[in-house]
Write a structure and sequence with these properties.
Layout: H1 6-42, H2 46-77, H3 81-111, H4 124-146, H5 149-179, H6 184-216
Amino acid sequence: MGNEPAHTITRYDQELESLRGIVARMGGLVERQTAQAVAAVVDQNEDAAREPPMLDPEVDTLEREAEQLAIRILALRAPMAVDLRQIVAVLKMSGDLERIGDYASSIARRALKVEPLDGALSFSALRAMGRLVQENLHRAVEAMVENDAERAKEVWNADTAVDELYTTMFRELVTYMMEDPRNIGPCIHLLFVAKNLERIGDHATNIAERVYYAVTGEMLPSERPRGGEAAKKPISQDD
């Protein structure tokens, strides 16, 4: 870029800033989707349940805008070094954010099907998991917006606690299903909600990894900290 005219460099900087702005708006939207999805479940809030699916088309549109702009910059500007890493990272992060929005919408659609199990299971564990996932997502988005490698690493390390909460819920819910077949329906809904929250946490961790690489040029260890074996058990995704 060193031999290009100043006005060309200015346009390039504007394009980079525009790309960051698009993904920052995506981050704000999916944070709201996730917060509303959690409120829909733990507070049985019908109004909150409606919002995440309604925001999905806007998130999808922003992802397409980010992809188109990133491809344009890569094709026309031939960025190098740090800029190249950041553009590729932002492109991948937009995909992570879109998936987070999808999972939040799935939680919201399932929210009103979730019922307490005759007082045996409160929403306290789910509330705690939802709060931690929201905190990690918020910090991941902040790290993305501010190019903060240290904050990104904090998010990466915090994923263990999300896995541990999911493992605790998984074991508890399986126990309830084994004790009384009438619990199977409510427990299945809660398992899907918990699994989708765990996946949101995974995508927040993906974002953190991409931020760390974009800023430092170094990869975090490929083996993430894990918080329990049950977190690795597959549960088929609903829509």
